[in-house]
Write a structure and sequence with these properties.
The chain is of the alpha+beta class. It contains nine helices and twelve strands.
Length: 342
């Protein structure tokens, strides 16, 4: 009705109110108001039989500390068979590294579930319809694939109702418990979470249909530190350099690196800030030239020949919003210019 009203006025100079037009369209069967639209039908499904068969994961950004602290995100892992909170953690925001870190903590404690169930967030699913490069998997999906864990994406929020209802309860009960405990920051909240989760599971948890644990142990040759690293491939230039996250990496020339000109290597970016460059499983020695590094004012004074140019560059750098690539992951507690060398 709104669009039809606009077009009648623009094209035919027919001026009629939107609500009058809406009534006419309803009378002629061209429009259904909300009261007469058929409701969406979401039929319930049976729970999974065993603990660890399906783990629903999601994050909820909320004022968990009310006015006492900043908003943050609670990541929760809910078992589909029992509705129990298997694992939860407060993080600054939903990021791939935060999900990787908490998923590793989950696996270290319980083992590998058969599948995770999530929404269609870009962390879990490649949402660009025209994406033709890459593997078709996100970094989180690639990590799960390496250790044989499936990732399933729900079409609607109601499809993953267990975790959605859990967050509804947590935004009521957990907020009040944090207030009573005097908790106002993420560190204290994460320390209190195990106590709250135990009480929550005792109150709302359901017994599974099958007491057999569906979690699987880790294989001996899997290194979770490498599995849950951010990995991107780069091509080595003829001068034995490559670029990643607005940094230029200079491979140290030796008998291993010299033949790698125009070869593809893999950059491993770890949650703790370490960066490794590997070729066929072997770490390569490198040095870093940071493109975002500020010009040293002492160099401006000492280098008379390039003083004017460096002064201009320094002035432009003050105006430029220097940030790392938004594609690359940010780590908890790491500034935009901070980097670590392996």
């Amino acid at each position: 009705p709104t669009l039809a009203c606009e077009k009648l006025r623009e094209v035919h100079d027919c001026r009629v109110s939107r609500e009058t037009l809406r009534k006419w369209m309803i009378e002629d069967g061209l429009w259904l108001d909300r009261r007469h639209k058929l409701p969406s039908i979401h039929q319930p499904r049976n729970r999974r039989a065993r603990v660890g068969e399906l783990i629903q994961i999601d994050g909820s950004t909320h004022a968990w500390f009310e006015e006492r602290g900043d908003k943050c995100t609670l990541i929760a892992f809910i078992d589909d068979a029992t509705s129990r909170i298997q694992h939860a953690a407060f993080v600054p925001s939903e990021s791939a590294f935060d999900y990787m870190r908490e998923t590793r903590a989950y696996i270290d404690r319980f083992g590998r579930p058969i599948a995770f169930y999530s929404d269609k967030h870009a962390i879990f699913r490649v949402n660009h319809p025209g994406a033709i490069g890459g593997t078709g998997m996100t970094q989180f999906g690639r990590a799960l694939n390496e250790i044989n864990i499936d990732i399933l994406c729900a079409n609607t929020p109601s499809a993953k109702g267990r975790v959605e209802r859990c967050f509804g309860t947590l935004q009521d009960r957990l907020v009040k418990e944090l207030r009573l405990e005097g908790v106002s920051d993420m560190q204290a909240a994460n320390a209190y979470l195990p106590t709250f989760i135990e009480q929550y599971n005792a109150r709302f948890g359901k017994p599974p249909f099958d007491e057999t644990d569906g979690h699987r142990p880790m294989m001996g040759d899997w290194d979770l530190t490498d599995v849950f690293a951010w990995k991107e491939e780069r091509t080595v230039s003829n001068s034995l350099t490559l670029q990643y996250d607005k940094m230029l990496f200079l491979l140290v020339p030796n008998e291993v690196t010299r033949p790698l000109s125009r070869k593809r290597v893999t950059v491993h970016d770890y949650p703790d800030g370490r960066i490794a460059i590997r070729y066929e499983g072997r770490d390569l020695p490198y040095r870093v030239f940071d493109k975002l590094q500020k010009v040293d004012q002492a160099s401006v004074v000492d280098n008379k020949r390039f003083g004017a140019v460096l002064a201009y560059v320094a002035e432009r750098q003050k105006e430029y919003d220097e940030v790392r690539s938004k594609k690359s992951p940010r780590r908890r507690g790491q500034s935009e210019r901070q980097f670590f060398k392996s």
